[in-house]
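Sanity check

After download, print the first record. It should look like this:
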Amino acid sequence: MTEDEVLKAVRWRYRICNYLFRLPIIWMLFGVVQGFLPHVPNWIDWTPDSIHLIALAIFTTGGAMTLAIYRCPVCDHYLSKFRPDKQKCAHCGARVR
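Expected structure tokens:
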């Protein structure tokens, strides 16, 4: 793989993982708004507790998907957000950022 292909693949994988962690935040805010404003029309007929369970399920799925797909395209090792050098893969040294 060329360096540009590696960078493009890592960005694409990061974007997917980022969306999977933003979506439950939106669901949680939706549940909080419904919980604090009881006179808001409840057009879905869901309780705030069920909305929080949906958000938890999406968050858990996002975590599992992150472990599955946020990997180095060269050596297939997990790219932790907490690795010391964010520019390179800790295992093979490929430039990922």
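If your output differs, re-run the checksum step. Summary of this record's structure: The chain has a mean pLDDT of 84.
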